[in-house]
Write the structure tokens for this entry.
Amino acid sequence: MTKTKKENANLNGKQLGVTATQLIDRYTDQPGELPFALRNDLLGRMAQDEFIQAYAFVDLNANYQLGEGWLLVTNKHLIFAKGSCETGSHESAAGYRFRQVSLKDIVKVREIGGLSVKKYVFEDNEGDALMTIKVSYRQDRALATVKATVEAIIEGDEIFESDADKIYQNELLAGIKEAQASVMGSQMSVIWRLLSYLWPYRLQVGAGFIAAMLLTGVSLIPAYLTGYIIDSAVRPFESGALDKEQALNMAFWATGGLVLIYGLRELFGWVRLRTMSTMGELVARDLRDEVYSHLHKLSLSFFSSKQTGSLINRVSADTDRIWDFVAFGVVEVTTSVLMLTGLSAVLISLDPVLGLMVSVPVPFLLIAIYLHGERMQKLFLRAWRKWSNLTDCISDAIPGVKVVKAFHRGDEEVEKFQVKNQSVTGAFNNIHEVWTSFWPGLMLSIHAIVIAVWFFGVPRVFEGDLTAGVFVSFVLYLTMFTQPIEVIGQMARMINRATSSAHRVFEIIDTEPSAVTSTIGDEVKQLEGHVEFKNVSFSYDGVRKVIKNMSFEAKPGEMIGLVGPSGGGKSTTTSLLARFYDVNRGQILVDGKPLQDLDVGSYRSKIGIVLQDPYLFHGTVLENIRYARPEATLEEVMEAARVANAHDFICRLPYGYETVVGERGHTLSGGERQRISIARAVLRDPQLLILDEATSAVDTETEKKIQDALDRLIEGRTVFAIAHRLSTLKSADRILVIKEGEITENGTHSELMNIEEGIYKNLVGLQNEFARV
Amino acid sequence: MLLQIHCSLNEDRSQLKNRRENDEQNKLPFGGSGFLLSWNEDEGKLLFVRDEKKITALAKPCFPWSEPFEKISIRDLESNELTFVTSVNDLEAESKQALLSALKEACFYFAVVKITAIEEDFELRTWSVETEQGSRRFQTKLNAWPSQVGENRYIVRDVNKDLYVIENTLELDTKSQKLFWPLSD
């Protein structure tokens, strides 16, 4: 724990998350780490064995103006360094003014919250403020870490080693990271990465691109051919230079050529569409497979930080959008660029003056489309905002329709809706007004080019400076300009949408699987159920300890009850036992072996967990029970259901064990679902069983049925049972009372009832009182 | 915010008189209880003094947006109500000053005077603003719209739950108004 100043400087100076610093710079207007000068200054002031444990930026001064200050906690002191921008005199060379309080003098840290300010008051034993700090909520997480560290140190707790810079950066970015599925990197790097998924299908991609280029080239021929026919057959025939037979012969060959060209064009079109769309599906499939399989390797903490809907969208909607981009977007944009370049080249080669007249306005048209897109985006944003108001109105009133009727407020609700509806209509009409004016305007510009071609071209045809065929070709080529201009104009939007989706998908793929999901370790073939916690400490965030130096032992076949106030650490204890997380300190031994040395998969297959709110998958009852052991026979499934007191109600279901339950299936009550989950656990036949408040969410009668089932289930197994209803723990061999991460009482029911003023005794008393009521 | 306090203190005297009369008719809860509020500047602490007993207190305005200086619950640090103040103007000078200082803290928010940019990032909207407290860059979710709390008054809540208030959108410069327009109600 003890580090020298040099080590501390190394820690703080080298293990910086460079990316995090860049992100802080990008999203906030405050330093991404403790300023170097201040750090050096502090190191000069601190004792040899003193080091910075945590720090936070203090963004508000005493007058509520934004400024710079730093609050740091070392293993000895709380230090406030006030920035140079608001102080008159400074004590340090770095321009900071210091105020230092010994941690020994701090007795209490008080938090007081305002609308947009949080005040931290560090008080002495008289209740007087030793230091008062005000920050905006942006800094609150980092300040809370400083507070937790101060409290841990003054309480004499052993604090974990921490990287102060990393903690500061993580806490500062937490709000942004929670709001954002992922922090966007460079758009080009995302596109390149996305395109790298095409590599396995490079032959198809090559074929698709060649087909697209040939399609573009071939599409340019008919207009040229039309001009050629006019100049080489029609006009010479009219002037008598060719006889009818010769002219017809030429026309026949030209028509044949057109047939061939159109045939080739559709062939290339078919190859392009077929190749790219199927290849796009393959890329999307690969992404979906990769994302979904990776999701199952991630730790529980990843899932707790992301919303389920967002994760589902990444596997479904986002990969679909990527398919759209890969299959069509990439090719559409490329062929449009090729088409415009080809058209301009052909026109300039046919007639440089008219060619330039047509080509020069094209960039301006593209700019106009881009600007129109930007304007439309603002209008859509406003319409989206109005639309959101309208949907809020519906989603508020419909679920609350009972209240609306009870208070006879239906007319007011309708009126409110009408106002918002009118507002939405106005916003959308505004959009229609703009786009319906823009596109005819754009077309008018294109028509103006056509008219200019006619205006300058026709006299030249009469003067013999331009052939009629070239002129007709020009006019035909002009009609081909519109579509590629439109596609290129929309390109930025298409790329934005695709890269956003790609980024959301890559975030999952890039998340490192945690150690607890790895399969490295000794395979567990059999479990006796001997569990020992040896000085176990655990913290979710590395600062606030949830389990503090916990030690206990459970012999095979023992039932251990875990009780105590909410948030005390009961569920964390069982989560550690299930190895959803790894301990920070100490060891958990299972059958004498450290849990971390065991293969997670084979270990978990030997334990059973019954949760408070069991989850049933969409499928039959049979499939749900068999989830624990897919190879179980029907007889084994029924036997498990009988043990779980579930057989009777399952037989009453319309299709017995083959009734579909879960989401979109037959609705089961909480007690019924619980008994199915117990049947699952019975079928698995675990030697180590965790019951996490398995009976807390049901009525008394159902509880009795579940309790009967549980009594049968726990026979001969090592059981850890968390229970709020203490009557369910009467058969426990031992009860551990866990409060604030520590075991405060340990013994049998009768032993704990003999502890005067004991927590357990108090809880039993309260529950008996409730029962009497 | 400061401007508002200033305005509130200088409000029309006749209005004040009427309100006092009304409050007297309503028999103010603290009328006969004889408490005093004082503000400790160094510690930023509001003290509630009654019968020579000092209790550290917090001021909790019941309607922080519509009536920040009226209907204020004075509570101890365990959030038990010590007394209820109908209006700061009903207090004697020292208590009034103390309560205003406490309210300045309790009702603190960033008062936006200029919007320099609103840019959309990946799933976020980044705002660059000038506030009465200084320049600030913050983020909101794309679907977190500003809430309207008056005719042209808006509150923007960022991803860290900090509040930014535009007192009157019409008083913003043209560029700020244009930037804000798509997000306004």
Observations:
- Confidence is low (pLDDT under 50) at residues 1-18, 86-90 of chain A.
